[in-house]
Hints:
Structural class: alpha/beta
Number of helices: 7
Strand order of the largest sheet: 4-3-2-1-5-6
Strand content: 15-25%
CATH architecture: 2-Layer Sandwich
Shape: globular
Number of strands: 6
Order of helices and strands: EEEHEHEHEHHHH
CATH topology: Nucleotidyltransferase, domain 5
Helix content: 25-40%
Number of domains: 1
Radius of gyration: 18 Å
Largest sheet: 6 strands, mixed
Amino acid sequence: xxxxxxxxxxxxxxxxxxxxxxxxxxxxxxxxxxxxxxxxxxxxxxxxxxxxxxxxxxxxxxxxxxxxxxxxxxxxxxxxxxxxxxxxxxxxxxxxxxxxxxxxxxxxxxxxxxxxxxxxxxxxxxxxxxxxxxxxxxxxxxxxxxxxxxxxxxxxxxxxxxxxxxxxxxxxxxxxxxxxxxxxxxxxxxxxxxxxxxxxxxxxx
Length: 205
């Protein structure tokens, strides 16, 4: 039987929705990483005046304006260390096409429509990956509706709010899902950098 592969993808965006940081890992069905890449998008990340990283004062400390310099410094250190490279959209698409040709992986991401939309806006071509599914949607279907998941939320006081109908709202973000799957409430929040999110918060699924 021909071996099957998944490609876990993540992207981090600018204020206008362009992708500044994109990464992916190709894994087999056992979760073994076969190949990976991560890069900052040339012409986007290095044009901070026209493409500043995403900020939202209402979304928490990581995303506020005061944290912007820290996030840029983190990425700059990645460039200096070699854990990121600055790559053109043409080079990124070249890697994706080689991955498609060699592995023919099933594409997935946590909230796949978001990544597809913003990659398309930036010129990153995911159209050849015709086999795809949304990891968030699958996780909600498999885990979030179970009694065990709901008990995990209750036991660790992770519920978000009470709805108008008197029901609790259960979080289904990547951090909560990963903590549930690994049984470790101490796992920190996502760093919201592409490759690290893929490996730390999507690969465990």
